[in-house]
Fold:
Amino acid sequence: MEFMELIQKRQSCRNYSQQPVTTEEINACLQAAQMAPSACNAQPMHYTVCTGAMAAKVGEATRSMGMNKFTEQVPCFVVISEGNYTASAAMGSRVKDQDYRSIDIGIAVAHFTLCATSCGLSTCILGWFEEKKLAQLLGIKNRIRLVIALGYAAENDAIRPKKRKSLEELVDFKTE
Ligand SMILES: Cc1cc2nc3c(=O)[nH]c(=O)nc-3n(C[C@H](O)[C@H](O)[C@H](O)COP(=O)(O)O)c2cc1C
Structure:
């Protein structure tokens, strides 16, 4: 698939079929995430892959206050928590007052979701979840930053046109 076509095709899926995701498919997406760049190459993240009964429990922790009702159908979740910085990334983050871990996780998630799309899978990045509940359920000690819902879209789930700000709003070109 051509790159811009892949980008157009990736969308947040909120309507999943019952088709399970294979270990090979999950691994392909994890390998794409693994190759993502990170500050000082620290790779400060951990992926907890949840399927079966555990996926049902994780899904439950993403539904509250009427949000994310669709996660009842999702066959696989990848919970992404922070890992350790290297000494140089920790120093850079402190001196420059930047949260490189969240940035690195965001980039890795972009790799993961685009790879999933290229494999014919669908995803939804979830930032709305009950962190304490998930941490307890999965024995995660560090901050949990994102959850990825992964599965096959239902047959009637069409590609939507993207709603985005114009480049005029988003971009400034400066030459001096
Ligand atoms: C950090 C982050 C958190 C998000 N959290 C949720 C969420 O909890 N539930 C949800 O349905 N979509 C969530 N989304 C998906 C966005 O709503 C979606 O990416 C955006 O509307 C653009 O649509 P598209 O992904 O279909 O192109 C999240 C996306 C990001 C990047």
Q: What stands out?
A: The mean pLDDT is 97. The radius of gyration is 17 Å. The helical segments are 3-9, 23-34, 52-60, 87-96, 100-118, 131-138, 167-170.
